[in-house]
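Example 137, ligand zinc ion.
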Amino acid sequence: MKVFFKELVFSTSQQYQLINITREIEEVVHDSGIKNGICLIYAPHATLSIIINEDEHGLKEDVIEWIKNVFPRNGKWKHNIIDDNASSHLASSFIGSSRTIPIIEGRLYRGTWQEVFLVETDGPRSIRKVLVLVIGE
Ligand code: ZN
């Protein structure tokens, strides 16, 4: 069994933003040389999330609209007293900081319309790290 990882760094330009990071992840999987195993995509941040879905403009806006509706910024959140970004923490908590994708025959095993996105909910930020960990053989 082999373990390979790489820390990717992105910057975001908007308060809410989806960035397709699939190509960068596939590059790490390729560089790992691992043919069969799993790929963990993990964001070490409290206000960032990772999702998998279609890269379609309307759908990306729908995702952001859903986040804003479920976790409104002007909600009566207690964390807002100290930091004013409770909704961003809640979005990250419940959408999730990571996703795992199988690697089969050297490739991410994903459907035609499945792309991996970093979901910014507290931008803009100059440094947003994403760890890609590949385990397999
Ligand atoms: Zn906070």
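Summary: Helices lie at 22-32, 57-70, 86-95.
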